[in-house]
C-alpha cells in the first residue's frame, strides 16, 4: 500500500503547482532516508539498473511509488526502487546520490508532469547534477548493441514540453560539455551523438528513422529529452548516456522487439554499470 500522504497536492490537477509536489516528495525522501540533502541524481533506464549497487554504499532504499507524485512502473525491465547512496570520491570526500528507479514514460499516458516529476524531485532534494540514462536504437552500423554513447544534444519529437506557460529556458547546452569531458577521462573511447525522442510506445518506422537521421539524430528512443529540459529548468547540470540496445528500424534487417532490448541490456549490464559508477564517482 502506498504511504503517500493524503494531503499531498494532486499532480494531475492543473491548479496544482508541480513544484509543490516535488517539494513534498523531497520531504518524504529526507524522512525515509535520514539524509537531509542529495547532490547528484541518477535515472536508470533499460540496461543500467546494475549501476546502483556499484556507485557506493546504500544508505536507504524504498519503493519509488511510495514517494508523493510517483506511480508504479508499467514496463517490464524497469526497476521500481529508489535508493539513497553515499558515494566516496577519489579525493576521499563523500557525496549523496539519489538513484531514481522506475521513470515514467510519456507513452504511459500519465501526462508530462509525471515524466518530469523525477528530476524535479531530485532538484528539490538539493541535486545539482542529473545523470539520465536510457536504452535506445542506433542509426550507425558501427555502434553495435552494448555500445554506450554520450548524448551531446537532442531532438524532442514528442510535440510537447515539460514547461508550462511563458517559461523560457536556454537549451544551447542541454547536456553539459564539462560532464562529457569528465566521462571521457574515465573512458576516452566513448562516442557521442544526438538523441531523438519519439513519443512511442510503438517503435519507429524505417521512414521515421531516416527522417531522424536527416534531422541529425544518431540515436532514437522514447525517454530522456523531456527530463533533460525539466532538469535544466530546475538549474541542474545534465549528463545523458544512451546504451545502444538494437539497431533502429531499417538499419537492422530484423524486426524490433522489447525482448531484444532487455536481452542486450542484460548482456551489457555489468560493463556499463561499472562505467557509470566510475563516472559518478568523478562528478
Automatic annotation (TrEMBL):
A purine D-ribonucleoside binds at residues 204, 246. It catalyses: a purine 2'-deoxy-D-ribonucleoside + phosphate = a purine nucleobase + 2-deoxy-alpha-D-ribose 1-phosphate. Its EC number is 2.4.2.1. Residues 40-281 form the Nucleoside phosphorylase domain. Gene3D superfamilies: Nucleoside phosphorylase domain (3.40.50.1580). GO terms for molecular function: purine-nucleoside phosphorylase activity. Phosphate binds at residues 46, 78, 103-105, 135, 223. InterPro entries: Nucleoside_phosphorylase_d (IPR000845), Nucleoside_phosphorylase_sf (IPR035994), PUNP (IPR011269), Purine_phosphorylase (IPR011268). Pfam families: PNP_UDP_1. GO terms for cellular component: cytoplasm. Keywords: Glycosyltransferase, Transferase. Belongs to the PNP/MTAP phosphorylase family. The purine nucleoside phosphorylases catalyze the phosphorolytic breakdown of the N-glycosidic bond in the beta-(deoxy)ribonucleoside molecules, with the formation of the corresponding free purine bases and pentose-1-phosphate. Cleaves guanosine, inosine, 2'-deoxyguanosine and 2'-deoxyinosine. Homotrimer. This is Purine nucleoside phosphorylase. It comes from Isoptericola sediminis.
Amino acid at each position: 500500500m502506498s504511504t503517500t500522504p493524503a494531503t499531498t497536492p494532486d499532480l494531475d490537477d492543473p491548479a496544482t503547482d508541480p513544484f509543490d509536489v516535488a517539494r513534498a516528495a523531497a520531504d518524504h525522501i529526507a524522512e525515509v532516508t535520514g539524509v537531509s540533502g542529495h547532490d547528484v541524481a541518477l535515472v536508470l533506464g533499460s540496461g543500467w539498473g546494475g549501476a546502483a549497487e556499484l556507485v557506493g554504499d546504500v544508505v536507504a532504499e524504498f519503493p519509488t511509488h511510495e514517494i508523493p507524485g510517483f506511480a508504479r512502473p508499467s514496463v517490464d525491465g524497469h526497476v521500481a526502487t529508489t535508493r539513497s547512496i553515499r558515494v566516496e570520491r577519489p579525493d576521499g570526500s563523500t557525496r549523496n546520490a539519489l538513484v531514481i528507479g522506475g521513470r515514467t514514460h510519456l507513452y504511459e499516458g500519465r501526462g508530462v508532469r509525471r515524466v518530469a516529476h523525477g528530476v524535479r524531485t531530485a532538484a528539490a532534494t538539493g541535486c545539482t547534477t542529473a545523470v539520465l540514462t536510457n536504452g535506445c536504437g542506433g542509426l550507425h552500423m558501427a555502434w553495435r548493441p552494448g555500445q554506450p554513447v554520450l548524448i551531446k544534444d537532442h531532438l524532442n519529437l514528442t510535440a510537447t514540453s515539460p514547461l508550462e506557460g511563458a517559461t523560457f529556458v536556454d537549451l544551447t547546452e542541454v547536456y553539459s560539455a564539462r560532464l562529457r569531458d569528465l566521462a571521457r577521462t574515465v573512458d576516452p573511447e566513448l562516442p557521442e551523438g544526438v538523441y531523438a525522442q519519439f513519443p512511442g510506445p510503438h517503435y519507429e518506422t524505417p521512414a521515421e528513422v531516416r527522417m531522424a537521421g536527416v534531422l541529425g539524430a544518431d540515436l532514437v528512443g522514447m525517454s530522456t529529452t523531456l527530463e533533460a529540459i525539466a532538469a535544466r529548468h530546475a538549474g541542474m547540470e545534465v549528463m545523458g548516456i544512451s546504451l545502444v540496445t538494437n539497431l533502429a528500424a531499417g538499419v537492422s534487417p530484423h524486426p524490433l522487439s522489447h525482448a531484444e532490448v532487455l536481452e542486450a541490456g542484460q548482456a551489457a549490464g555489468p560493463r556499463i554499470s561499472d562505467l557509470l559508477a566510475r563516472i559518478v564517482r568523478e562528478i
